[in-house]
Amino acid sequence: MSLFDLNVNTLDGRPDALGAHRGKTVLLVNVASQCGLTPQYTGLQVLAERYADRGLVVLGVPCNQFGGQEPGTSEEIAEFCDANYGVTFPLTEKIEVNGAGRHPLYQALVDTADAEGHAGDIRWNFEKFLVNGEGEVVGRFSPQTTPEAPELVAAIEKQL
Q: Average pLDDT, stretch 85-106?
């Protein structure tokens, strides 16, 4: 099964937020508006713009499980991202990435290890997963790995 077959809604409630990007490289990032790592939105937007014509889609996945740092409604999240970071890349509905309520998307992601060997639960906001055009996870990056990090950029370019 491909990750593109999993159902997750867009931030505004439309179905198929992931499946709509079948055949493209997708960088999935659990995001939050009130986190010390929130400025990563700037770099994510740069990646989305820089590589869009080569088939990259950055997909933000709001989550409120880490310190309650994404408390807003869908409308508030959208407004925050636009007003503060000029985000134009798509966002999904707010979901849970850990615990008993973990969304099936993250059930499929968390077994992938990052370069340091960490697999399992999402550690914090802005953990990143790179998914190839066939819907296979090809990379996992820690929350502290910035969008500009050479290892992340190289992994993206390898898939494009």
A: 97
Query: What residue ranges do the domains of the chain occupy?
Result: 3-159
CA atoms of 66 and 32, how far apart (whole Å)? 9
Cα(37)–Cα(116) distance, integer angstroms: 20
Residue 1 pLDDT grade (very low, low, confident, very high; cuts 50, 70, 90): confident
35 is catalytic: yes
C-alpha 36/C-alpha 32 separation (Å) is 9
Neighbours of 132 (CB within 10 A): 18
Of these residues, 35, 137, 149, 153, which one is catalytic?
35
> What architecture is domain 3-159?
3-Layer(aba) Sandwich (3.40)
pLDDT digits (tens, 9 = 90+) for 72-85: 999 999 999 999 99
